[in-house]
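Hello again, I could really use a second opinion on something today. My current little project is about how a certain protein chain folds up. You're getting the sequence in one-letter code plus the fold written as tokens. Here's the protein in full, and shout if anything looks odd to you:
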Amino acid sequence: MSIIYGLDPVINTNTEILLVGTLPGPSTLQTGKYYSDPGNTFWKILDSIFMEDMPTDYIARCEYLLNKNIGIWDVLMCAERKGSTDKGITNGIVNDFMDLVIHYPSLKKIIILGTTAHGYYKSGMRQGKIPKKLTYQVVQSSSATPGRHVLPLDQKIIQWKSAILSIEST
């Protein structure tokens, strides 16, 4: 099994919220575009939250999120991965969030997409790669792969909306 590497973050100096998954799947890595798997509901959830038509062009989608002070990244920098699910990930190496916070001081909150990403995030905190003082919240993954306790799409939208919009009250 070979090591796969994630994508660079979609972030700018105004980013306050960073949405982080575990590690891109094969479809995303092939296209170089976050959440490009048509079965993943990431973009559909965000479209519903902001009640606006999300652009269909990837670059425009990223600019749309950045204009809302939201960025995208992954908890893992690299790992070995068999298949496309998070269960196939082994030997993950956590991204350097300490460096990210230094370069993007406007960052206020991390929203972790799913339980596997959360496990690696906590591991990164223990390793000193993620600041313990950085506010974070876990929401259900946008993956189409069913896991334990999967919420229907409308419930995921409510959960994500609460996490994203709560930044204004922190």
User: Anything to note?
Assistant: Residues 106 and 167 are 12 Å apart (CA to CA). Strands lie at 3-5, 17-21, 70-74, 76-81, 89-94, 109-113, 135-139. Helices lie at 26-31, 42-50, 58-67, 97-103, 115-127, 153-165.
